[in-house]
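Lecture 7 notes: from sequence to structure.
We start with the chain below.
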Amino acid sequence: MVTSQVLPDDAHLITQLRQRNEDAFIALVEQYHTSLVRLANIYVNDEAVAEDVAQETWLGVIKGLDRFEGRSSLKTWIFTILTNRAKTRAQREKRTLPFSALEALDFLEPGEPSVDPERFKPPDTPEWAGHWLSKPTPWDFSPESSLLSKELRVRVEEAVAVLPPGPRAVITMRDLEGWTSEEVCNVLGISETNQRVLLHRARSKVRRAIEMYFDEAK
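Predicted structure tokens for the same chain:
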């Protein structure tokens, strides 16, 4: 697993939190609560339960602050608490599969390709067999993108929502929340290689949904 260090501004914030600075805690909640609920919802697949898990996470943060040793960033620590509580809640309520399967990448049907084979020329094509029928557009989605219409954003979110848990978690954190690959690996407990595979699979699925959106608009 990738490791990371506590950032300098973390140290100052942690001091404030340990001093029970209410303003510091409110600012922290405002910064991360929505993201906590979004990630929890991947595990439990229920908005109300996801909100409960996020609230439980903040209680865990308050209780655990004095024991936080700074072996990771504060952000990573908070979201690790969230994922642990969400996994426990999901298994208890049997709303989803245990996330321990994440390490095995067991979120697509066996042998399922990342990209639909119909996107490529057949093997018996006289020229350029196996090449793209039409080359996909580069991946250019980010929360700040001004090029995406509201309708397209809805289509993207719908495509993300139906992904298997592993790819959905990674693409949510990387492309919707703007996390680094290191942060994703630390919180989900996966290797950099697994993170790249899951992200590639997720982006391939979502890219296809975007292309279908534009095809329908023609």
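Points to note: The chain has a mean pLDDT of 78. Residues 8-93 form a domain with the Rna Polymerase Sigma Factor; Chain: A fold (CATH 1.10.1740.10).
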